[in-house]
């Protein structure tokens, strides 16, 4: 593939902060300024940041619930099919199928399927795995975001983005270092 | 501020010294220190003690594989199992190892739901211990049939269609056990991996070589610490903890059904599920302490795994040890009160029959030794704690041996009485399983962060945006 020779497009502006309190106050300002395509990157989950960013409650629970329901029905159906339909064995004169004896296995399968659904649901909602992300090209970002620094990233694709205004907002919010990351 | 204003404002006195909690990370360590120090264990030069430890563990592990190869090539006759004790050594080891795993899940799931923040320093290694213990446990039921290829196909363990068109019989607790243990292993792995993702991203961003960058990067799935991601991640973590809690309680309950659902005197008791779960947590914490006390010294983790952490684990051992002691007493009481002569005989035989030595070893290790932890002096002496934790491990192995072997070595008719003796193959296979366990743990600590870096950062005072420290500070 021949790469077209052109100047790389700016992807986002990233602003570094040194404390969780600073980044939280800055996030509140970015939220109130009405940005949509932006994010805060922190080395650990900072409590209260969801509200500061205006995020809604996560939807992962629905995946868990559906996974659990699937698991329980799979267990019950499998055991009914195997022991009550396809190859009937009478054990101790007990009924060929009842909701009791398949319960332990169905219970385990509920948990098994729900756990898979939780993990994969979380990855789906986060659009992971993602093996390339432009901000990982910034040395400043990679040496801080998973270590001890806090970053606000505002994408240039945001309708409110303006090279001067956005930078001004982040500077006023107390950022220690601002840089542009290219796509 | 004027004098009158000072009078009006509310004065909050600091809590009295005796009520102040010891911090979870000592010496006011900074966020940077936490990732540098913990990631450093897996990044730095291999410590000198690691190689001898690894070589010994790997040799012991090879011994286990040799014994298994001998078993499979020759037949199950190389073990000491025979009538009447057709279940003895291998299932004892299986229950022992599965029980060890329970502490890991208790720490990662139940303590998480109970908001016990001290769990963050120990959950990663305890969960790794769970996984490796499940690997050791799983070995025994798979190899005990001799011809192991039948375990999968034609499917006496996992329901696969086979040439005789017969399905497994789902009324049997043994089949419940297959599902319980395999679900347990799988969900523990998922939970452990979910917790690892942010730390793998830390490792990726710190990696110096291409291959490390690629491997950590691959398994970190492109994690960037985005708060939109953290929001889903934390919910998923909470849900996994919520799923693992009923799971861990069910696994050892189902293991106990293997015995309790039968009609063998000494096994057929309703106290088994809670008693097995308490015993599992008891033994698991014993193993966690056996691993973490050397680890914290060798890797200089005293600021993260503090004396307070060790003390709290000792208290869990004390609580669960007391439950186990109560269960031993209650079993005897019911054996007498139930009025079933066979039941009473089984218990008398347990304590005073030919296996009296196993019974009293169990009582000494499990009922007496944990009560030493009432003393704060003992709880804070690392060497003593390590020794007592060893006693707990030994005692819990004996407990399973006592329950299993003493209940079946004398059948109803004296003509079917016997005395089970393990062969050298039995003994070396069990000893070898410790080699497998230690090898896996040593590899884990060389390649992955032994402590959940992101979670420990989250429990430091400067991590809280509302803390007066304002998020700054900490010593490097």
Give structural notes.
The complex is a heterodimer of chains A (183) and B (476). Chain A is of the alpha+beta class. Chain A has helices spanning 20-32, 49-53, 60-86, 103-125, 139-142, 163-172, and strands at residues 10-17, 38-41, 150-155, 177-182. A 4-stranded antiparallel β-sheet of chain A has the order 2-3-1-4. In chain A, helix 3 (60-86) packs antiparallel against helix 4 (103-125). The longest helix of chain A has 27 residues, at 60-86. Chain B is mainly α and 476 residues long. Chain B is built from 17 helices and no strands. Chain B has helices at residues 3-8, 31-43, 50-74, 89-113, 123-143, 149-152, 173-206, 210-220, 227-260, 272-298, 307-337, 341-352, 356-368, 376-379, 382-408, 424-447, 453-458. Chain B is globular, with a radius of gyration of 25 Å. The chains are: A alpha+beta (183), B mainly alpha (476). Chains A and B meet through helix 1, strand 2, helix 2, helix 3 and helix 4 of A and helix 2, helix 7, helix 9 and helix 17 of B.
Write the SSE topology.
The complex is a heterodimer of chains A (183) and B (476).
Chain A: E1 10-17, H1 20-32, E2 38-41, H2 49-53, H3 60-86, H4 103-125, H5 139-142, E3 150-155, H6 163-172, E4 177-182
Antiparallel strand pairs in A: 1-3, 1-4, 2-3
Helix pairs in contact in A: 3-4
Chain B: H1 3-8, H2 31-43, H3 50-74, H4 89-113, H5 123-143, H6 149-152, H7 173-206, H8 210-220, H9 227-260, H10 272-298, H11 307-337, H12 341-352, H13 356-368, H14 376-379, H15 382-408, H16 424-447, H17 453-458
Describe the structure in brief.
The complex is a heterodimer of chains A (183) and B (476). With 183 residues, chain A is an alpha+beta fold. Chain A has 6 helices and 4 strands, in the order E-H-E-H-H-H-H-E-H-E.
